[in-house]
UniProtKB/TrEMBL annotation:
Residues 96-194 form the M23ase beta-sheet core domain. This is Peptidoglycan DD-metalloendopeptidase family protein. The lineage of its organism: Bacteria, Pseudomonadati, Bacteroidota, Sphingobacteriia, Sphingobacteriales. It comes from Mucilaginibacter straminoryzae. GO terms for molecular function: metalloendopeptidase activity. The keyword Signal applies.
């Protein structure tokens, strides 16, 4: 059984051990599905480059569709990473988003969906980067899984140490604002990995499109954890 199948089997057989990442009411809370590919011609490069304009655009979309949160991004080939040289390389531009973004209000609480421990954490303090980031380590029977939480408040890192036990449904942080989250509209970048490849406090959330198939082997779809009803996602 490959690791994706192992994860699916564990979650199916242990539903009582899987909890929320953010507070929402299944079937009631509405999520707006953002599209940040080239198909989105409404959001201009100039809008994306201006954090205030980008933030207002996101807020207007959520308000206009009566949604508390926005969501999307797993393996999405995005254009918006042109806003930061962090994603530019000589070989190939990094534009493939590897996790799921949950867009909402600064201060929104973030919870550990599974029991585990703090693997590592740091403030990736660069324009366009994660800002404050926490990586948790989970032992799911014979399967090792890591979960990453980016764009948090700096306060979220207070009191942490590597190896600190974390219970499922325990609050681990909150959405940061643009002044501390890498200069993004408030949101959570949530990502799963089977192998951290020796990294600590950081793991790429954006990759090269040419490596998509390889990346998907190591990075499962976070939807298996989030379990947001499709009927509540507004497209």
């Amino acid at each position: 059984m490959d690791r994706h199948a192992q994860l699916a089997a564990y979650l199916k057989n242990n539903p009582d051990k899987v909890n929320k990442v953010i507070d929402f009411h299944p079937g009631l809370t509405r999520f707006y599905a953002f599209d940040f590919t080239s198909a989105n011609t409404e959001l201009t490069p100039a809008d994306v480059a201006d954090t205030d304009k980008f933030t207002h655009w996101v807020e207007d979309k959520l308000r206009g569709h009566d949604c508390e949160f926005g969501i999307g991004g797993y393996m999405e080939h995005r254009t918006l990473y042109g806003r930061s040289p962090l994603f530019d390389t000589d070989e190939e531009l990094r534009r493939l988003h590897l996790g799921v973004d949950i867009w909402g209000s600064a201060g929104t609480a973030v919870y550990a969906p599974l029991a585990g421990q703090v693997h590592s954490f740091q403030d990736n303090h660069h324009f366009g980067d994660y800002g404050p980031t926490i990586i948790l380590e989970h032992h799911l029977d014979d399967l090792m899984l890591y979960s990453l939480y980016g764009h948090l408040t700096r306060e979220s890192l207070n009191g942490l140490h590597e190896g600190k036990a974390v219970e499922a449904d325990e609050k681990i942080g909150a959405f940061g604002d643009a002044d501390e989250n890498g200069s993004w509209p408030p949101h959570l970048h949530f990502q799963l990995m089977f192998d951290l490849q020796g990294k600590r406090g950081d793991y790429p959330g954006v990759g090269r499109f040419s490596e998509k198939e390889l990346l998907m082997h190591n990075i499962p779809d976070p939807a298996v954890i989030l379990q947001i009803p499709d009927a509540t996602i507004v497209r």
